């Protein structure tokens, strides 16, 4: 369904939301997946189909959420910008995730924010699918984050981690979730800021051959993700000649199915 169908105030065209419901029905955790930069939801449903199927098999409901994912953080928060505004990345993520007017460098409207889009979608599903029990993911018409696992690829993984800093979610599975920087090639300070979600509810993966593997590892350490919740993937990659080889393998390559099952099972526990 299109975001505008869920709220007429959502005007940016970013493609449809895609919603899956586990055949088990009843009470189930909800996994919300945020694609990476330029990662259309219709392409994500193909590229990440194995991960989606794994989550559904473990009883999750699964939403690929359409949101404004361009321009990327790294395209906006360039070195010249960071030299005078080291908090550029956090300001951009705050606006894109929560709709607050923290920066003029992107033009996202408040109703286009990730949190509002998810809230509007859940309210819409409550009305249009009354047998679906979607109301279990709302608390007084706001998202009940204790029932939601956030996941995402690249920029989307970074958005999942950023939101988890601000609200206590059920868990996060961060696939190569961005490499936000501040001046002097240091990772952004928001990674090490206090978070609402306990670090033991966070998981992070990256491939060792990614261009920014070292920065991603530093960001996971700064978020205090436990060592046994971080996974440096090293199986052969399918596109070794890509511009950023290995980027995207963690969320899409079926060879990591057992790892997905482990993370999903641990976050599925009450």
TrEMBL record:
Protein name per the record: Alpha/beta hydrolase
